[in-house]
Amino acid sequence: MLYKSISTQALRRLPIYLNYLKSLPKDKVVNISATTIAEALKLNDVQVRKDLALISTGGRPKIGYITRNLIADIEKYLGFDNADSAILVGVGDLGRALLSYDGFSKYGLTIVAAFDSDEAMIGSTIFGKKVLAADKLKDLCNRMKVRIGILTVPPTEAQITCNSMIESGILAIWNFTPVPLTVPDHILIQNEDMAFSLAKLSKDLTESMRKNHCNT
Ligand SMILES: NC(=O)c1ccc[n+]([C@@H]2O[C@H](COP(=O)([O-])OP(=O)(O)OC[C@H]3O[C@@H](n4cnc5c(N)ncnc54)[C@H](O)[C@@H]3O)[C@@H](O)[C@H]2O)c1
Predict the structure, then answer these.
(1) What domains, with CATH codes, occur in the chain?
(2) When comparing pLDDT for 57 and 195, which is higher?
(3) Smallest Cα–Cα separation from 129: which of 152, 102, 148?
(4) Using one digit for the tens of pLDDT, what is the confidence trace for 9-24?
(5) Binding positions for NAD(+)
(6) Ligand 1 centre distance from Cα of residue 131 (Å)
(7) Per-residue confidence at 53, pLDDT binned at 50, 70, 90?
(8) Which of 127, 135, 145, 153 has the highest count of CB atoms within 10 angstroms of its CB?
């Protein structure tokens, strides 16, 4: 199908639908409606219907979607059906935690190797991933056609490592450092910032408490 543009909010909801659909017993829930999904996830059913219509043409009045096909449509849209290879640079506390997580494959991501500047770590295998020296980055990315880089180095090393990733052919960077990276237009950046998420949660909590206090 030809996809229409999708909002960031809708894009965030798609993996939530997918996780829910995959949690259902395969043999029992053959068909499913947007309303059922909305009720289960405590979402607005008009919104769920609109989201699903953007990525699947399988919805039928009164029947809903064939669950198996809807899962396939969401996975296809999100690119989870064809695994992307990624490398990770910076095998410290956070890098190791990401390497230890074997659930990325569910999202179509396979970390094929890790890189670190610490000589003591180079050549070792951590959670099944070989740790290589930074000067092997370009060769490996070219050879294995890796296009995604996960950045978990200290902030002082973030921009220089980002530059090396780009020189090595990386096109999309999952940036866990707090550094705003400077990159050419064609490079995609996804920033993950726990400090920002926490600040937002804290601000939302303050506002919610203020509102509740005003209402009592
Ligand atoms: N996104 C978040 O919410 C979040 C949470 C915690 C930490 N962080 C950030 O993630 C990054 C890593 O944090 P950490 O606690 O794992 O740090 P860490 O010090 O434990 O690990 C950093 C690793 O990077 C390696 N390294 C340093 N310079 C390098 C280089 N030029 N090339 C390759 N490897 C290099 C070090 O040897 C070390 O193994 C930091 O920038 C930190 O601020 C982000």
Answers:
(1) 8-78 (1.10.10.10), 84-195 (3.40.50.720)
(2) 57
(3) 102
(4) 899 899 999 999 999 9
(5) 90-95
(6) 15
(7) very high
(8) 153
Phi/psi at 33 (5° precision): -100, 160
Q: How many A from CA of 152 to the centre of ligand 1?
A: 4
- What is the Å distance from ligand 1's center to 118 Cα? 12
Model's pTM, two decimal places? 0.81
**ipTM score here?**
0.97
Closest by CA to 189, choosing from 197, 198, 200, 180, is 180
